[in-house]
Design a protein that fits this description.
The structure is a homodimer of 262-residue chains. By secondary structure, chain A is of the alpha+beta class. Chain A has two domains: 3-167, Jelly Rolls (Sandwich); 178-257, Orthogonal Bundle (Arc Repressor Mutant, subunit A). The first copy, chain A, contains seven helices and twelve strands. In chain A, a hairpin with a 2-residue loop joins strand 11 (238-241) and strand 12 (244-247). Chain A starts with 30 loop residues before the first strand and ends in a 6-residue tail after the last helix. Chains A and B meet through strand 6, helix 2, helix 3, helix 4 and helix 5 of A and strand 6, helix 2, helix 3, helix 4 and helix 5 of B. Chain A binds a DNA duplex (30 and 30 nucleotides) through residues 179-180, 210-212, 220-224, 226-227, 229-230, 242-243.
Chain lengths: 262, 262
DNA sequence: CGATTCCTTGAGGCATCTCAAGGCAAGTGG
DNA sequence: CCACTTGCCTTGAGATGCCTCAAGGAATCG
């Protein structure tokens, strides 16, 4: 496939080959069926009919545990599967040749990872567990076969990829035109919403990522993240104790976020 | 479709409904076949077999002209087609409720636009012609039908979407961890590479976008873009005359870009 | 020819970064 | 159990890169 039409600047931005670390991944014998999974309304089968979901069951996705700090896949690894988070939190990140890291996302239960690998057949980013986690591996070739049988499945996958594009749009907006307070507010509100969707408290939660990781994601230094947390606390918007966050004033936070709520 | 699992923060970041401007789009009667298109190796059919490409011919994509400054589609418009640039250059951009704009990409011949609309059925960004342009409209529903008949076509579309994700990754890298000179150098090198792929000079070209648009794309103010151009010129890397650019020292520019070439 | 748009350049300000020091909690080894 | 290390976070002080504001030039257009 000629790459002439590529839209990306990935080949302009040289990406460092990340040394492959031995995987601390258990070879779990467990398999999972989508139709009985408690995440089915958040995950791949979301929007699929019952028969289509049952068709997915045929794949019996392999489950794997990934220990905190370990990579699920690394930048440059051969792309074979996409992954759904079953439990825990991941970060995905890119590394430049000179070692600069950019966290490009945080992923929680029901969310898919690895879609960036389809383009070139190699993962364009690394996925690293921020706590002890469990994932479903979804072999891409196999998924494609199934998709030939079901237009709906095809469309669901397309929609998920498109959603990833939209998600990155928002992050670009954030990185391109917001100040530190707006960025952190956007981050917290987004986290809150996703936790709520998973049945957790939207107003009180534990951050799985360090200040440095938040900073990288939001395009600011860890000290600035820390100062901004302190500022929010002084403004009475949050209670912060290390990684434990309590949102006290959601409206205020939304205002700090800087966008008129239409 | 429940949106609970959505990865994006688009719904945290409220997007301004852009007022729909009357389209200055000619209702061209022209139709185009992929198999005879001079862009076929850059565009959708890239990587497809001859029979698959001929299958695309069945769609007879409608061609349309879009005049400079006019939108091809606007944020919030109903999503029905994706678009391939046939001629000219587009920018795509997002607008926040408070009016801040973020340019999220520039698109030239053979590149696809509108993939972000698949997720929600509405375009998540606007596409605006930077000069007089011509596009192929690719009705998405129709494309999906064809894809059920051809696994290859399915995979090509998936690959194009994935590539868009990767492209945005790089932009995030850029916005998150590069300084002004690195950003502009990355931008110019990327442009150069894409022009070269289209048979144009990689070292001398005319920018279709304003300093403000470049600035928005790169997350900096137009004055900073201008100053950085001047700095590059003083360093002997470029010759700049308004929008006419000549790259004098590609290696130097690559170094300014800040990344060891592996 | 004036109006407009776009670009360049300067001067000063400020948000964020850099560098540095110290606190706290958890882990480790004696 | 304590001393020490380590990782992570907070806070301060000073530096700086980019932004803001402002003025003026060049090209385009009606």
């Amino acid at each position: 496939m000629s790459n002439a039409a590529t839209l990306d600047i990935a080949r302009t931005i040289r990406i460092a080959p990340v040394p492959s670390v031995p995987r601390a991944v258990s070879v779990a014998p467990l398999k999972t069926q989508c139709s009985t999974c408690h995440l089915r309304d958040l995950c791949l089968p979301c929007g699929l009919s019952v028969p289509d979901t049952e068709r997915l069951d045929g794949m019996m996705f392999a489950r794997r545990k990934v220990a905190a700090g370990q990579p699920l896949y690394s930048q440059g690894d051969k792309f074979q599967s996409i992954y759904a988070v079953r439990m825990g939190t991941f970060k995905s990140s890119l590394t430049l040749a000179d070692g600069r890291e950019q966290v490009s996302g945080f992923h929680m239960a029901g969310e898919l990872m690895g879609l960036d690998g389809i383009a070139s057949g190699a993962h364009a980013s690394s996925a690293i567990a921020l706590e002890d986690t469990e994932i479903c591996a979804i072999p891409y070739a196999h998924l494609n076969e199934l998709a030939t049988q079901s237009t709906n499945l095809q469309m669901v996958v397309a929609r998920l990829m498109s959603r990833e594009i939209v998600r990155e749009h928002s992050l670009m907006m954030l990185l391109g035109s917001m100040n530190a307070e707006e960025r952190l507010a956007a981050f917290l509100l987004n986290l809150s919403r996703r936790l709520k969707a998973r049945g957790y408290s939207p107003s009180e939660f534990h951050l799985r990522m360090s200040r440095a990781e938040i900073g990288s994601y939001l395009g600011m230094k860890l000290e600035t993240v820390s100062r901004t947390f302190s500022a929010f606390q002084q403004q009475g918007l949050l209670e912060v104790d290390k990684r434990h966050i309590r949102i006290l004033d959601l409206d205020g936070l939304t205002r700090a976020f800087g966008l008129r709520v239409q």
